[in-house]
Amino acid sequence: MWDFETEPDFQEQLDWVEGFVRDEIEPLDLLFGDRAYQSPSPALQKTLDPLKQQVRDRKLWACHLGPELGGQGYGQVKLALLNEVLGRSTWAPVVFGCQAPDTGNAEIIAHYGTDDQKRAYLEPLLNGEVFSSYSMTEPHAGADPTLFRTRATSDGDEWVIDGWKFFSSNARNAAFLIVMAVTNPDVHPYQGMSMFLVPTDTPGVKIERNISVGGEREGMHALIHYDHVRVPADHLLGGEGQAFVIAQTRLGGGRIHHAMRTVGMCQRALDMLCERALSRETKGSLLAEKQFVQGYVADSYAQLTQFRLFVLYTAWQIDRYHDYKRVRKDIAAVKAVMPEVLHDIVQRAVQVHGALGVSDELPLARMWMAVPAMSLVDGPTEVHKVTVARQVLKGYRPAEGLWPSEHVPTKVEEARTKLAELVESEVGNW
Ligand SMILES: Cc1cc2nc3c(=O)[nH]c(=O)nc-3n(C[C@H](O)[C@H](O)[C@H](O)COP(=O)(O)OP(=O)(O)OC[C@H]3O[C@@H](n4cnc5c(N)ncnc54)[C@H](O)[C@@H]3O)c2cc1C
After folding, report:
1. Test site for ligand 1: of 148, 376, 382, most ligand atoms within 8 A of the Cβ
2. Residue 170 contacts by C-beta under 8 Å, 6 or more apart in sequence?
3. Is the pTM higher than 0.85?
């Protein structure tokens, strides 16, 4: 069954979310946009608590997780529809308990954590009491994790972690880090790396500096030196050597969630483009009446609709198979096209707004910076395209003979043989 309709009950929820984000959360974006991922001040907490409570009362808190993992169990399709709205705002994912990188971190603790780890790390994360950070990329290697060098060695009933990590987002505000480290250098990295839960205040965790990406006022992405960091043996997440399996679980969800929020960002840019086209006059007519601008509107609408349907279809497959690996081709394809769609739509919106478009008086320049970030975060576009190509090619075989299987003269010959009698009888009629 194919069905492109939203259940009426959930549509009602979405309508409520639209109004709630616009009226209650966007003012926070405008005044405190750079504080969304920090521990809130008591005054900010007082404002946030009732907002979060409203979200909980509507059963919309932490929608990315199934009920067995502490979430609502709506599934990825409904999460996609919700994230389209939340993706327009900086604070909204925090107020709804589904902000990156905490969503992916919660997901892997829920999947692989022991009961004690869930109590200590997952519960406060799901309650929105703390933030977390994912510490995988290293200064010398990112896209190829087999090159990672950060080392964890077993010492009695402790692990000792040594090495450097780069771009650990929000480490400065995180209560704990999930760190990927080599535990057995003598086997293939796929079996020789493990994940660790490391409280940020553990001695030896040294944030050397916080790196900002274009436009951020404060650096959010930490360069961390793990200098003889000791954690108890039970801080290993999942089994020893399981880091790659855990990372795939995390990144599968993380990538599609980025795409869901990007749909929201693109829609916002398209809304701005259309409003401007209908508001600005030049050379005797509205921009909306110029064919170039009509082309921008039509191309943007078509690209966004294609992308949105692809995201929803991929989300539907995740709900259906509950297996990121089985859906990896489409997750990778969605991730690869995401920055391109965002680029094209934001670029047209900027262009139609002229000088105002590039200024900081509109959110477009900030959206523009998300383009390169989205083509790197959770793996570069090139790597995802390689994954897509490999998966697609698995469904094909080489041509058996000299000619391609669609070679017309060869096929005509085969058809002649198959229909020899008919050809014979029809000769006279040709
Ligand atoms: C905003 C942002 C937030 C991030 N947050 C986190 C985080 O919280 N935790 C974390 O661990 N990391 C994080 N990262 C890091 C991110 O995961 C890496 O940037 C990404 O994996 C690429 O690694 P790299 O930057 O080292 O680039 P490299 O691995 O050095 O790659 C550089 C370029 O080389 C090319 N390339 C690489 N591999 C291939 C290939 N196989 N085929 C063809 N071309 C290739 C691509 O053009 C690629 O962009 C974040 C990055 C950004 C931008």
Report:
1. 376
2. 37, 101, 131, 132, 133, 220
3. yes
Does 385 share its domain with 260?
yes
The enclosing domain of 361 has a CATH number of: 1.20.140.10
Residue 378 Cα to ligand 1 midpoint, Å, equals 7
Q: What is the pLDDT of residue 214?
A: 82
Same domain assignment for residues 383 and 274? yes
pLDDT of residue 70: 66
Low-confidence ranges of the chain (pLDDT < 70): 69-70, 428-430
Q: Which residues line ligand 1 (CB under 6 A)?
A: 101, 134-137, 142-143, 167-169, 213, 221, 373, 376-380, 382-383, 386
CA 377 to centroid of ligand 1, rounded, Å: 6
Question: Do 257 and 371 lie in a common domain?
Answer: yes
Residue 213 CA: nearest ligand 1 atom is: 1
Supply the pLDDT for residue 65. 79
Domain count, the chain: 2
Closest atom of ligand 1 to CA, residue 380: 49
Q: Whose CA is nearest to atom 52 of ligand 1?
A: 377
99 closest CA partner among 134, 140, 131:
131
Q: Are residues 228 and 258 in the same domain?
A: no
pLDDT at 430: 62
Pair (199, 303) in one structural domain: no
